[in-house]
Amino acid sequence: MSRMDIYIDGASKGNPGAAGIGVVICRGNEVLKNISSYIGKTTNNVAEYTALIFALQEALIMKAPEIYVYSDSQLLCRQLNREYKVKNANIAVLFKQAMHLISAFEKVEVCHIPRTQNTGADKLANKAIKEFFKNHG
Q1: CA distance 110 to 11
Q2: Distance between CA atoms of 53 and 94, rounded to whole angstroms?
Q3: Can you tell me whether residue 85 is helix, strand or coil?
Q4: pLDDT 10s digit of each residue in the chain, 137 long?
Q5: Which CATH number goes with the domain that contains 8?
Q6: Is 72 left (phi over 0), alpha (psi -120 to 50) or beta?
Q7: Which of 14, 52, 131, 135 is deepest in the core (most CB within 10 A)?
Q8: Strand, helix or coil for residue 33
């Protein structure tokens, strides 16, 4: 199995507030999997990292040797690429978990992209929040 491109996004209404994640896993131009999940009340940054962890776990299940992760979260990208230190205790736990999962791949690239190039994952993250409110008032 060849390289997978993974688009991730986390959304939080209120920051902290109701939060969801969106993940789009592709190979070439083919979408292999969409993930949309409500994750409870949390911050936007925690939602971004949770989306990353879901994506990494799914890529491991799919036995991808090489992944490129695309996110519109500059903070997440710079922390994972070791340009910024992780100072928040909640993020530090998620960062450690993400780095552990990343170590299982042959190659991982984390790339920052503009929000306009991340609409698929963004829609899935917001869809999870909308569906939660629709079902739980």
Answers
A1: 19
A2: 8
A3: coil
A4: 589 999 999 999 999 999 999 999 999 999 999 999 999 999 999 999 999 999 999 999 999 999 999 999 999 999 999 999 999 999 999 999 999 999 999 999 999 999 999 999 999 999 999 999 999 87
A5: 3.30.420.10
A6: alpha
A7: 52
A8: strand
Whether 31 is in a domain gets the answer: yes
Q: Which residues of 8-42 are buried (b: 16+ CB within 10 A; e: fewer)?
A: bbbbbeeeeebbbbbbbbbeeeeebebbbbbbeeb
Q: Which domain holds residue 47?
A: 4-132
Task: Give the Cα separation of 69 and 5 in Å (integer).
Answer: 6
What's the one-letter identity of residue 41? Answer: K
Sequence-separated (6 or more) residues with CB below 8 Å from residue 19: 10, 11, 12, 13, 38, 39, 40, 41, 42, 43, 44, 46, 47, 50, 129
